[in-house]
Design brief:
By secondary structure, the protein is mostly helical. The chain is built from 4 helices and 3 strands; from the N terminus they run H-H-E-E-E-H-H. A hairpin with a 5-residue loop joins strand 1 and strand 2. The protein is elongated and about 60 Å long.
Length: 128
């Protein structure tokens, strides 16, 4: 599978990721709250270049966005890429638990297998 296929077919929709994140982070906890003063007097203030909703607190004047203070902040990845990575890691973790093997060993095996598959696929698809 080439990287274009992963990006075009398997990545979740960006807005769906943000909707999920906003639901978990804000709406299931009573709405958007300022990260600095906890005020709910918040103005929605556009989007970051990566699609996170930006907010301005009308009490303390500070700015934050959907990703501020989360594990998704300050990465070069797009949100849908991070969701994809997490989903894949969960599967691998489950496999290691089911087999009673350590996570690194499972990951190493998978990476070797993927390398092998990619080589075969390249030869078949592109006749390299
Ligand atoms: Zn505030």
């Amino acid at each position: 599978m080439d990287k274009d296929a992963v990006k075009e077919v398997f990545l979740p929709n960006r807005e769906d990721c943000f909707k999920f994140l906003r639901k978990k982070r804000w709406y299931e906890k009573g709405g958007v709250k300022c990260l600095y003063c906890l005020s709910q007097n918040i103005h929605h203030n556009g989007y970051t270049t990566k699609g996170a909703r930006k907010y301005k607190c009308l009490e303390c004047g500070k700015y934050f966005n959907d990703l501020t203070g989360t594990i998704f902040e300050n990465h070069r990845f797009f949100i849908e890429e991070m969701f994809y990575i997490i989903k894949e890691m969960e599967t691998n973790l489950q496999i290691s638990e089911e087999l009673g093997r350590d996570y690194d060993s499972v990951l190493n095996f998978i990476m070797g297998f993927i390398d092998c598959l990619l080589n075969i696929a390249r030869r078949l698809l592109w006749r390299e």
